Amino acid sequence: QKEVEQNSGPLSVPEGAIASLNCTYSDRGSQSFFWYRQYSGKSPELIMFIYSNGDKEDGRFTAQLNKASQYVSLLIRDSQPSDSATYLCAVYNFNKFYFGSGTKLNVKP
Amino acid sequence: DGGITQSPKYLFRKEGQNVTLSCEQNLNHDAMYWYRQDPGQGLRLIYYSQIVNDFQKGDIAEGYSVSREKKESFPLTVTSAQKNPTAFYLCASSMGTSDTFGSGTRLTVV
User: Fold this and answer.
1) What single-letter DSSP state applies at residue A30?
2) Residue B41 distance to chain A (closest CA, Å)
3) Per residue in B44-74, pLDDT tens?
4) Which residues of A touch B45 (CB under 8 A)?
5) What is the dihedral of CA B87, B88, B89, B92, to 10 degrees?
6) Widest Cα–Cα separation across chain A
7) Strands, E, within chain B: which ranges?
């Protein structure tokens, strides 16, 4: 079983809609969770991190964490074509980051 | 400006040849990591180092070697034992859970 699982997509949403990206993890003791955005051919860039159950908002982005369900999500409000990228979920455990395979998001104008 | 520098950006390797990818950081981060990314895939951990002169194997260490003689530097050697080395290689460093990525090296076997 992989440490971090994501649906590979692609997820297609129209411009202005809410994009919802999901991630599950296997280690119940995980404490730190991250969302990265990666444009094709580029390195990942950190969008959000979350440590506590509940929601964390930063501009158009909201990270949601449910430790009981071992589930973390990223909502992107008012999606823009520039949001089209692959979104990687990561969990930090035992001094290492474990990455999911990423979900490709397409925002259609 | 602080950051991570990876070089070269593009690298071509002949069959049976060893090549070394450079990773330098001036962030004073203790931990450094090497990841491999194949097309359409996530990041897989090759090696990581928490302190100078110490490093640990990740999930796909076979065919790779590293050294950590200085805090700032964590070079990765792709040896001839790595049979399918064509991939995008990313170096990262972190202080606690705050990490930074380099811009990557794209390695191609010719």
Assistant:
1) -
2) 5
3) 999 999 999 999 999 999 999 999 999 999 9
4) 96-98
5) -150
6) 42
7) 4-7, 10-13, 19-25, 31-37, 43-51, 54-57, 64-66, 76-78, 87-95, 98-101, 105-109
